[in-house]
Structure formats: structure tokens, C-alpha cells
Amino acid sequence: MVLVMSEEVREALGAGRAVVALESTIIAHGLPRPRNLQVALELEEAVRHEGAVPATIAVLDGRPHVGLAKDQLERVANEDGIRKLGHRDLPLAVAAGASGATTVSATAQLAALAGIRVFATGGLGGVHRQWTVTQDESADLGLLARTRITVVCAGVKSILDVPATLQRLETLGVAVAGYGTDRFPGFYLSDSGYPVEWTLETPAQVAAVMRAQDALDAADTALIVARPVPEAEQLDPELHARVLADALRACDREGISGQGVTPFLLDHLVRHTDGASLEANLAAVRGNVRLAARIASAWTEG
Ligand code: PSU
Ligand code: MN
Known about the structure:
The protein is an alpha/beta fold. The protein has two domains: 116 residues, Indigoidine synthase domain (Indigoidine synthase fold); 180 residues, Indigoidine synthase fold (3-Layer(aba) Sandwich), CATH 3.40.1790.10. The protein contains 13 helices and 13 strands. Strands 1, 2, 3, 4, 5, 6, 7, 8, 9, 12 and 13 form an eleven-stranded mixed sheet that branches. Strands 10-11 form a two-stranded antiparallel sheet. The radius of gyration is 18 Å and the shape is globular. The two termini are 28 Å apart. The model has no long low-confidence stretch (mean pLDDT 96). The structure holds pseudouridine-5'-monophosphate and manganese (II) ion.
């Protein structure tokens, strides 16, 4: 097997215990140092606190790791020039012996390969604004259309074209449910301004949908559980609108494209909100990770 699983993850999967996959791009490219390493450790702790085992995923020296030791997390957080790997990059990185942080698409692929069913992140990638010009649609969407995994997220990043992304998910046949809400969350914001058609209220209900997917659906599609950041912890919507518009203009002006777009926009928001966007991002991720652990437990108990 090409995967390197940590002892803890292998044992947990072998014993049928709850495991939650965590991505590493958010650590390497989505959050500023040195906070990123603290957050990586804190998220793993949050999963454990809810009685599940964390499996942070990354590629180190050409080997896809599922479950990282502390020194390996440190490499992901601090190594200069560590790549950002989407799922298409995995074979290239493995053959080249390269190291990289995995995006939602690469993490979901490796998690599914390892037999992990539940995955937590901040916000999914999606259709970028100006898609008609750039054709920039995150590979996250295509991968989730053919991978049997449950992703807990705070919706898609608000830097994206949210309605276009929701439409793509519909076209691709990916199930979307709001967690405790009938509004699609807006990543930094509790509400993106768009509705969702299904609402789930408990981890047991999510697990029931997962079982129904296995029973009904021959195509390996994902389930997106969209949990809003609590209103008290969201970014001020007015500040969000203002700084986002500014960030999009800066991105345009500086000619950023491809893989650089998402990290550029996230970083711009952090710097121009005095870190408030970072706190909202972290509040979202923390809540998602805890919920994912509870869903993984409901899944393994069922
Ligand atoms: N969620 C966050 N921060 C991030 C990301 C998600 O809170 O940095 C990352 C994920 O790894 C996601 C990626 O897959 O951003 C999307 O990048 P792109 O638009 O280039 O596909
Ligand atoms: Mn992109």
C-alpha cells in the first residue's frame, strides 16, 4: 500500500472506531505562521476530545501520510515552499518524492483510499467569480462528485461565486444539507444569502443519510454537511463585503491565477480585517471538526 498510516489511525480503523480526516492545505497555505501549527494541534485535540481519532493528511517526501506525528505536522506548517496538492498532483508528487499539503480534493481521495468516511475542513473550494473568463473551478467539486465521503464544512469560501458553486454541486449530483439551518453557510458568515433544501439536526441523522447513500447510490458521491459558524463568531458582514471587494480587485490587479488565488484572497482578508477573518475562519473550522467527530462516532456506532 502506498499510504503510510500512523499507528493510531491504523488501529482505530482496524477496530472500527471513529476517525476524522483533516486536510493540510489550510495549515500550510490557508493560515499564517506561527498560528497555523497551533491550530493544527488544536484541531487534532478537538477530535480526540469528542472521542474520535484525527487523521491529518499530507504528502511527505513522496509518501502520502494518513495521520501525522507532531514533527510531521511541524514540517507541513513551517517548511518553506511546501506545495499545494490537489488530487491530480498526487501521482506527480509521489513519483517525484515531493512534499505537499493536500487540498480538500487530495485529502478526500486519500481518506477514502484509507477507509475513512468523515472529513472536516473550513470551506470547500468551488466556482470562482469571473469563472467565465478564468474557468477557475476548484477540483474539489469534481472529486466530491465521485468519492464516497462525508465532508463537514462551513459552506464554500465566500471569495467564490456561491450560487454558481451550488448549481455545480447540483449538476454533479453531490448531496448538500445544512446542519441545523436551511440557509447555506457563508464560510466567514453564518449565512451566504442562499438557501439549502435539506436540513439535518443531529449526528445520528447525518449517519442515517450516509447509510442511505450506501444503500441507494451506485455512484460514489460525497455528502456535504454545511454547518454555519455561529452568528456571534462570524465576521462582521459589512466589513466582509468591503474587504472582499478590495481583495478581489487586488487579485485582479496583481494578476494572481490558478492555485495562488485562494491563498492570496484568504491572506488579504486576514491582513485587512486585523485578523478578524482569521478568528471567524478558525471558529468555523473548530466547530466543523467537533461535529465531524460526533458524526464519525454516530457512523461507527450504527
Ligand atoms: N478551507 C479553509 N482554508 C483553506 C482551504 C479550505 O478554511 O485554505 C483550502 C482547501 O484545501 C481547499 C482549497 O481545497 O483551499 C481550495 O483551493 P482551490 O480554490 O485552489 O482549489
Ligand atoms: Mn482554484
